[in-house]
Write a structure and sequence with these properties.
The protein is α+β, with helices and mostly antiparallel strands. The chain has one domain. The strands form two sheets. A three-stranded antiparallel sheet has the order 1-3-6. Strands 2-5-4 form a three-stranded antiparallel sheet, with helices on one face. β4 and β5 form a beta hairpin.
């Protein structure tokens, strides 16, 4: 049987102008109201694979921050509250796992998750 890690990491690239607040204060449901187009559901989209968040930055031009936020969640909390949102996504010919987390679950994510920022190479980044 494979050994479970203590934490599960999920990744997000915030819309430009929101990254610092998301990193320092957490995610606010008001930042994810839903809109016409690709994301009408009011969910905050996270990824289990960092490359997905990095791909979003690389292909989204100026609409997103130039860093990703890693949220480390205790495995038991991830399994209980967030794993249910996992779904496959394909970007640039690669397949990974994304999580459209409903805005109603963001308070729980803020409560159990620990946030840190990384640059697109996965190196720690200090955001002031």
């Amino acid at each position: 049987m494979a050994e479970e890690t203590e934490h599960v990491s999920i990744w997000k690239t915030s819309r430009r102008g929101l990254g610092k607040r998301h990193l320092l204060e957490g995610y606010d449901s008001e930042d994810f109201p839903g809109s016409m187009g690709a994301r009408p559901d009011g969910c905050a989209y996270f990824a289990r694979d960092q490359w997905i968040a990095a791909e979003f930055v690389a292909t989204s031009m100026s609409g997103y921050e130039d860093f990703t936020i890693e949220v480390r969640i205790p495995h038991s909390d991830y399994k209980s509250h967030f794993r249910q949102y996992e779904q496959l996504v394909t970007l640039g010919g690669r397949t990974g796992i994304e999580l459209p987390v409903p805005a109603t679950q963001l308070d729980e994510l803020n409560r159990v998750g620990v946030r840190s920022s990384v640059d697109l190479n996965g190196d720690p980044l200090h955001v002031e």
